[in-house]
Design a protein that fits this description.
Blueprint (H helix, E strand, L loop, with lengths): L1 E4 L1 H8 L7 E6 L19 E6 L8 E2 L1 E2 L4 E4 L1 H4 L6 E6 L2 E6 L2 E11 L8 H12 L4
Parallel strand pairs: 1-5, 1-7, 2-6, 3-9
Antiparallel strand pairs: 2-3, 4-6, 7-8, 8-9
């Protein structure tokens, strides 16, 4: 899989402290370990870039790109991505597209710090709080 990252998107990402880090293109619909969102209206149409100091075996599929980023994704994400994948930054938003059109007009960038034990209660609370604000 290949993605074209526009100059505007590259400039935006350069301000996000991504040098030397791994970047995962992850679903943000409640199905990924990095997602706090969820709900039937979000399945497959919400994405995020997760910036991590460490690799993740669940996100090991390389995405070739013109920005020399260490960009990978999981198997589930590939289901929703087509040919002509592109990431652009306009009017304060990252936009992910492919030849079929806009996949997500507001891709977020999240920093991830791995923890020895993930606090599932805190994640559940965050998801419930966000659930009242989406869909």
């Amino acid at each position: 899989m290949k993605i074209n990252i526009t100059e505007n998107a590259q400039n935006y990402l350069a301000k996000k402290d991504i040098d030397g880090k791994h970047i995962f293109l992850a679903l943000d619909d409640g199905s990924s370990k990095f997602s706090k969102l969820g709900g039937s209206c979000a399945i497959g149409n919400k994405f995020q870039l997760v910036v991590s100091p460490v690799e993740d075996q669940d996100y090991s599929t390389t995405i070739e790109n013109n920005a020399d980023l260490d960009l990978t994704m999981g198997k589930e994400e590939a289901t929703f991505l087509g040919e002509g994948l592109a990431l652009d930054y306009k009017m304060g938003l990252l936009k992910l597209t492919d030849n079929s059109g806009i996949l997500d007009g507001a891709v977020t960038v999240q920093n991830y710090e791995p923890a020895d034990v993930q606090d599932k209660e805190e994640l559940s609370k965050d998801m419930k709080d966000l659930g009242t604000k989406i869909c």
